Amino acid sequence: GERLYKHMQRLPFLVPLSAQGTDFEPHRSVYARLPSDARVCVDYAAGFPPADILECGGAVVGYGSDDRAVLTAVRETTASLEAAESVFDNPLLSIDAAIDAALASTGSGPVVLADVQDNPGAGATSDNMEIVRRLVERGVRGAVAGAIFDPETAARAHRSGTDVVLRCSVGGRSGTPGTAPLEGAVRVVALADGHFECTGKMYRGAHATVGPTALLRIEDEHADVQIVVTSQRFQCLDQALFRHVGIEPAKQRLLVVKSTVHFRADFDPIAAQTLLVEAPGTHPCRLENLAYRNLREGVRRGPNGPTSGA
Questions:
Q1: Cross-strand bridge partners of residue 213
Q2: Residue 304 contacts residue 85 (beta carbons within 8 Å)
Q3: Tens digits of residue pLDDT in 254-305
Q4: Which of 62, 93, 120, 277 makes an SS bond possible with 74, Cβ 3.0 to 4.6 Å?
């Protein structure tokens, strides 16, 4: 058979997951220009930046029958990414700044607050209650958050039945610094078995099994905040999570989703605005201060960030 050649180059900087979306520059243009024909096929993986391994970070790899053409294409793609280092945008907002922006929004559809650092799809615990806590404290109405991983609370809601008020501690069981359970009364609005079919572009046709699930409303005379509590961790990347407990996402004022990027395919089309929130979580999206031990020297911790080993 025909001999194939391979070349690879690594990027000299890490890209936070929250800045890796391919609907935005520079990734949108980079992926659109990747060559793929009989002689040369090039691909680029942005990598998982919190991985404390020697090889962490983005890489461009190419295969093809023309050795020189493959090498040239890999070098050109890598050079285009390096030239676009300053274009990468990681617009993380504090919880209060995100709520301020959401309340000021005049667009149609919900404002989506992405809890990017508590994304179970990236290894986080999905039980941080800090955004929900501030929504209640600030008296926000028309907000729904999901998915909160708390099998104990979900089981208790299923034992009690709907339209019952429970006093309980919700979420915050993981011990992540800066987090704590939300203490108080909740009303059981709806119950579900946690089986639903995903309908969004990311997971369409996949069958989700998140265990006994409850829609709970925080009992507070000033706020109207509901939470979807599941018995299995589930990255909130599909509107079906909300619909299977009777919530129509497009009709809400504010949606909190525990996801970093994958939610965008299903939620961005209905969102008046999408905001990335820097709340406590075990999936760091700000890389500058991470104490890498195994990352090779000379790699920048984020676009234009400080250099590892320095």
A1: 192
A2: yes
A3: 999 999 999 999 999 999 999 999 999 999 999 998 999 999 999 999 999 9
A4: 62
CB atoms within 10 A of CB 46: 21
Alpha-carbon span 306 to 6, nearest angstrom: 31
Report the DSSP beta bridge partners of residue 187.
165, 217
Q: Decide: 49 and 22 in contact? Cβ < 8 Å.
A: no
Amino acid making up residue 249: P
- Reported pTM: 0.95
* 224 three-class SS: strand
C-alpha 57/C-alpha 224 separation (Å) is 42
Mark out the alpha helices in 13-143 (DSSP H runs): 27-32, 67-83, 95-104, 130-137
Go through the chain and tell me how many residues it has. Answer: 310
**Ramachandran bin of 194, using left for φ above 0, alpha for ψ from -120 to 50, beta for the remaining angles:** left
Instruction: Say if residues 234 and 126 touch (Cβ distance below 8 Å).
Output: yes
- DSSP secondary structure letter of residue 296: P
